[in-house]
Write a structure and sequence with these properties.
Blueprint (H helix, E strand, L loop, with lengths): L1 E2 L6 E2 L2 H11 L21 E2 L6 E2 L2 H13 L1 H9 L3 H8 L8 E2 L6 E2 L2 H13 L9 H37 L8 H14 L5 H17 L7 E2 L2 H11 L4 E6 L5 E2 L10 H13 L17 H13 L4 H6 L13 H10 L2 E8 L10 H12 L12 E3 L5 E5 L2 E11 L4 E6 L5 H4 L7 H11 E2 L9 E9 L2 H10 L6 E2 L2
Parallel strand pairs: 8-11, 10-17
Antiparallel strand pairs: 1-2, 3-4, 5-6, 7-9, 8-13, 10-16, 12-13, 12-16, 13-14, 14-15
Helix pairs in contact: 2-3, 2-5, 7-8, 11-13
Amino acid sequence: MLTCEFCGEELVLEEDMKTHLLLSHPENDMGEQSHDGEAEGREKRFSCPMCALVCTDAFILQEHVELHLLEESPAEEAVLGATSSTEAASSSNSSGGKSYECPLCSVVCGDCYSLQEHVELHLDYGTATSAVSPGSDLRLARRLQEEEKQRRKEQEAKREAEEFKKLQRQFGVNGRGGYRKQMERTVEKAVSRGVMVHAHFHNKRDEMMEALASGVDDGRTRTQGVLGALYVYYQREARDCVHVWLSADTDHYYSSEGDKGWGCGYRNFQMLLSSLQRMEPYTTCLSEGSVPSIPQVQVLIEGAWREGLDPQGATHFNQRLQGTQAWIGATEIYALCTSLRVSARVLDFHQPTGPGDTHPRLFDWVKQYFSQTATSGARLPPRVVQTTQPPLYLQHQGHSRSIVGVEQKKNGSLCLLLLDPGCTPGDVRKLLSQDGSTVSTAVCRMRKFPGNLKHRQYQVVAVEGVLTPVEKQTRILNSRTLQAERIP
């Protein structure tokens, strides 16, 4: 008689004992080794974690487990009747719920569906044949980790590509054409809506082509006499200001149909140039009375890059601005001024210096810029002064404007006066009105207190004279690593 060492049952035949061990004690892989050493050559067996079935192949086990999962109610019964090894694993589960141990490794899953996915991973990676080896589980974990890294890289690359396209649209380098194409599209839309007749369309198109060919701005968006009107206004009104400093005479330029949404930098350069052309030191290097059109300004900036100015900025725009809607900023204005032999500085107010993300250091610097020459030698400076200082180019994220003056209130607070290219000619021309209330409303739109300028960073381009040819070459060499003056 043969006695089962696990349950004590007695059987006569050895084959009956093997069958008994296989069916009644499948979790004890050493059952057959107690007889005649035949276990060394027998096949690997895999027990189903949901019933007592033992499979000799991992793929058969997978199909068997999937049958359990397809039949939800029977599967629940199988779970309740799982093997003792599964029950032991569930008792160690921190959540106190049912757990399922993988028959191919030591991993314990919280539910049968997770177990199915885990077994499928074994089969996908070919680890089923070496399931009981601890190294196989480590290799699987490493492969899964590599797959996760690859997925993250692909997602990051996709996100970067989307961000790049967004930046291309934002900065006008997405191939939508430049000033001419945008003007044509705008006029064509006006004709299709019935706002403009075909005859007017053709006339306007001919005017545009003529202006583009000449390279000179047609003056349709220009408003003259702005600073003179401001000087008269402050002489009569704004008695709460103890001091007002205004820039030299400057024309306002408005973003038209051809550059709306991206042309503010070009328009502010036109404002700056309109002021410099009236001042004696700059007439030697600038053509008097000829303000270039936006496409011509793009040509001039490309010429500055070819001279060697700001090679990093040139690379950013792929050496090309013509025919694009690319935004320009303080560094492009600096390169353009240097190319024209105009001495300029770029000041970077790179962080707020006051409460509530304000920039009092910026306001103090602007006051110092306009007042440094206006009160020299005067014991009691006049309340309103129109200086000989050119306007300042003010850049922040997404927009740029021109600073043409600063007010100092009785309580010592400062207020900047800005000309905005986004302001329509009709609104700016209200400054020229004889009606005091109309002028006051227009001036209020120009005023910017510290609480109105709360961007993280501001850059200012200040013009301060004319360069000699030698000084120009020196600045071209230094612009290879162009850096702004950081304040503070």
